[in-house]
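Researcher: Please predict.
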Amino acid sequence: MATLAEYIWTDGTKPSPLLRSKTRVIYENVGHDPADFPHWQFDGSSTNQAPGSDSDRILKPVRVVEDPVRGPGNCLVLCEVFEADGVAPHATNLRADLRQVMERGGNDADFWVAFEQEYTFFKGSRPLGFPAERRFPAAQGPYYCGVGADEVYGRPVVEAHLRACMAAGIRLTGINAEVMPGQWEFQCGGPHADPLMAADHLWLARWLLYRIGEDHGVSATLDPKPVPGDWNGAGMHTNFSTAAMRTEGGRKVIEETCEQFKEFHQRHLAIYGAGNEGRLTGQHETCSYGEFRWGVADRTASIRIPRMVADEGFGYMEDRRPAANADPYAICGAIVRSTLGLWG
């Protein structure tokens, strides 16, 4: 029986990459080992990754999971993009850069990563839950973790997405409605999820969110500020730890890392998502774009040390600056480099 393999990759669109995919019918027996799946070429001139005069680029499978949309026996195949020679990673292949950083010390430090991916549903040109008869719904307040048709919008899509990710084996650890109507969050990664695994699973979860949205007639946007004015933006808080942070005396390591991050604040912001300055205003549970602060249980800081971590003396830290549309490979690369002093 043939396998339908959906090859998925990130393109070269600026300022934020888009997800692309195409289907390959495979008649040989394949499992979940990326090596079982053949390399495949694509038209890079249509994805902002090549000129039309030399358009072939190569997809190399790196992560394979079950396809919960097409059902058992079919696969989602996450790929890296390579140049036409199949040897050199394409300039847009940020996963290859993260691989190299992990080999330079990230693996030895035993990083665990978890992303809090916020997103906003749109129906046409309006956020889901924003009534057509007037410009805005009631002010923020009851929507966060709310329940009821007057407070929550899009739950059928969210539930379908959660079930699909579970069926695929994607490491989601939770979901919740967010502060603005039509805005939601899923958490991806967690204990024992190294940076490559967490980032791979996040991209696959994003692809499934968009794909399932097709069936419900809604789209999910990762815009950091989907609605101007007194409405929360959308971020992707990134929780991470090293083995040293998770053991006795870890709080001191975490605090030292917070101090190290001050030096790299502008460098981080440059890769933490396009349009993030519209979200990091110092309001709506953010620190201002030009300021760096860290603190315990402080959701207005750049870096938050959870109260439980401060009390227990070890654990993890939360970088609250990344925008919802940031590339998780770039975020992880910056965190590993800044924690271990690997810039340059």
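Model: The chain has a mean pLDDT of 96.
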